[in-house]
Design goal:
The protein is mainly beta and about 675 residues long. Helix content is about 5%, strand content about 55%. The strands form 8 sheets. It has a 22-stranded antiparallel barrel. A 5-stranded mixed beta sheet has the order 3-10-11-6-7. The protein has a 4-stranded mixed beta sheet with strand order 25-26-30-29, with no helix packed on it.
Amino acid sequence: MRRPFRIPIDSLRPLLSAVLMGTACQAGAADAPDLGGLELEDLLQLKITTAARKPQSVRETPAAVFVITREDIERSGATSVPEALQMAPGVQVGRISSGTWAISLRGANGRFANKLQVLVDGRSVYTPLFSGTVWEDRDFVLADIERIEVVRGPGGALWGSNAMNGVVNIITRRPADTQGTLVSTGIGTEQKGWLAVRYGFQPGEDQNARIWGKRRVMDDSDRPDGRAGYDGGHASSGGFNWDMRLSGGSTLSLSGGITAAHHGEELDLTRFLFGNAPVPGRIETRESHLMARYGGQTAEGADWSLQTSYASSGFAIVNPVGPIDDERSTLDIDFQRRETRGAGRHDVVWGLGYRHSRDDLNVQLIGGSIEPSRRTQTWSSVFVQDDISLLPERLNLVLGARVEGSSPGRTEIQPTARLMYTPEGPHSYWAALSRTTRQPSRALRDFGARIGPFPLPAPLAGGWLVRSTGQGDDMRSETASTVELGYRYRQGRFTFDAAAFATRYRRQAEYVFTFDGVVALPALTRVTDIEVRTTDDSRAYGFELAADYRYSADWSLHAAYTYTDSTALDRRFPTQLPLTSFFIYSADARHRLSLRSSWNLAPDWQLDAWLRSVSSVEPSGIGGYTDADLRLAWQVRRNLELSLVGQNLLHARRAQYVADTLPSSSLAIERAAYLKAVWSF
């Protein structure tokens, strides 16, 4: 395994690190090009849409952006979107079990990281329960993903609350580009097996559609001591996409889908000093959604679109101690318009947004509860962003802001100012200053109860009483002020990208202990008081480096390095009880390095290698590690490909992350291999 990496590492040593900065075309624009055959100069001119809500090349974008292309996903050997996100700089990825992940941008990581906005084709998929993303529901036919756009840094001015540290937009392919039948199947040691089928067809003139379905089964992980874990499970998903071109040049798109996942989840209640053995249970998640998008161009040349989506979701943890059950329905409406003014010097994007979420909760974790059990939340917003050309094709100033009101909550303003300088030659520079907000989650706002008394273990007598109080509707949003600097270089077959940032968080909220002692009530009872506290002392800073070198038409090298430091992880709480990790993020790795080599051995053979190195995950106690993946693919004939992939090859088993918000037992991620076949006709 070392041989494929020896040359890339030596070649990239003077570059510090990196990643593929190639990008793909805008969804809904012209047919997608074959990214594998483009030179780096062409890749830099391809369009992305998430950073500015309009088509824009990487070189012209005053933000830290990274695009994971369809080819990247395939050649990495990744079997899920979370695995593929490890390619991007600035992304914190920790695997908790076979089906659960902790994913964030620029630190503050956790199973439901609350400072990251995740979109699927522009549709927000975060849950207000924890202000995070249920990654178990994000199961795709990977061949149908066009690209994943990762915008590191504040995105609240365009995408609203919770885009505090960045935005991940998973963009699927147009039905016109997925005509015919595709079958993808595999069998392996940890991914025990999967079958994905997609069929694309033309239901009528100027219409294209596809239907798809997927089923996969996952094996149990190992415990750190080598014993079998409990997290095996299965997931099923399916859906459709339909595009239609209407008279006058307007377009109508419909899409929908359903996902259901089921896997084991063992609660480690010893973290709460309650009981002496883990409690077995299971997690069941589901989501069904329907989305419509209608857009076109006015007679004056302005582009506009109206997108509406409705989703019904469920998240349940079934265990003997107490259920966690979230049934939720969400309506999203988003309108935007783009037009040029002032003889083309002003490129203005503006829009309106409305989100309505209604939940029905049954949360009785260790006797605690979230009250009220039913709540309706609404968010209304208006945004505008003006891209001002100060010096044509050389210097641009971007000014934007979003005004968002919520119920319950207050009206928040999220402004941004960005400067982009692109002189002649291979260099470009950018800078940004932004303010963003994060809405309080239901868990932080409304978790509160008088819990107990519980019996204390021998030889103590009496019981254990927990008193917890949330802040309810009076709880204010967390805010962040961020300054960013960026630099890009591209020359011939080589690109380099660097970004640095510093963020100060205000009103960052956590559950902390305020009293922990033994009193007589009237029997001997241990009393623990827990309350929500906020702090203005949290800061984060770091830098991200990315590079890509195409040595030849058949061999390319990619690297990425991330350094992130957060002072929030160094704070000490009034008690050493493990419950201080309840409802807050758990840990971050300060250093992350990714090195990839993609080599076409022959016209029908590919060899790909991927080395990842992660420093210790603080303060959870997970030690640093280095691991590697290998992929060998054979194009048997034009429409049939076989590939053999080995994952996490340097360790028989290795813990990557410790569960935070929900107290799951620790697991180790095992060495794995799978055989995959893709047949299209």
